[in-house]
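Collaborator request, handled under Task 6.
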Amino acid sequence: MSLTKKIHRNEDKMENRITIRKAVTKTDTAAFWEQLHVYFKRDIFPDPHDEDRQYFLNDAEYRADIQKIHDRPKNRCHYLFFCRNGQDIGFALPVIYNTEDCKCFIMEFCVYPKFRGNGTGKDCAFALLDWAGQNGALYAELNYGGDKRRLHFWKDIGFTENGVDEWGEPLMILPPTDTAPVTVEILSDAEDWQLRKLENGFLKEIGEQALSEERQALLSRAILNKKIVFFVARRNGRAIGMCSVARCFSTFACGDTCVFDDFYIEPVFRKKGIAKMLAQAAQNWCREEGIASLTVCCAPCDEEMYQALGFDTRLGATFAHLG
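Structure tokens returned to the collaborator:
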């Protein structure tokens, strides 16, 4: 199964067809890591003083971490070479999460410099996506590092920008085409990495910085202390949206009231009814908990949206003093 509609070019000619070869022997594995190190130094971390470069070139750290993913029995990464006419012309490092939501995450992708041009990179990308589909992947995702050339390259393949990862780095996705149910649940794990991913996507969208370790710790503590409750929308286990409800005591109501916040859905999953599911889950929870009111503070441009989601009682203007 192919994950994308392939644009046929010179791969239709058997003598120039791109194939995938997996590194299985010690010699192949050594060659893969040699090329990966060259790629990091040449294309990703050209500054020899870059702190990230030191980590990615450290076999005792990065390579050891990746080897554990490669050797685990499920959801493994794969060391792959792109081949043409019997010659290796590049490599890829994908992970397929078969037991989760069947995502293929492309960790690394490289065509060797002397083989670049004439559409070779796109041919390799399509070959990789075909390989991923044949190995159970339903969609693909990658981190493009904010590089405009990579952004344009993967857009031409069919990927689209889609939020950020748990570290705040921009992501692209080739969306799943299968229909799968979406469910909403209350977050049970305050340290869930997918919450960090969604929270960082929300923060980026409103022009704020990604969560620092200190702020992440404060958020986790607030969740554990039940000062805030998160509702998460999941599709095949993948968290694709969220909202939060924060408690406070109202002397007017002489009881608890709540504030609705952190409302975010990954861009490719919008306009599918998920916003309504999240809002209703939060409203139902407040009703069950005996909460006097659930309020939301929004920009004028979002008022109609929130009214459609059930926030239909206007309480006047909101003013704030920021310390």
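The cover message to the collaborator said: "The first strand starts at residue 18 and ends at 22. The CA atoms of residues 182 and 214 lie 32 Å apart. Please let us know whether this matches your experimental observations."
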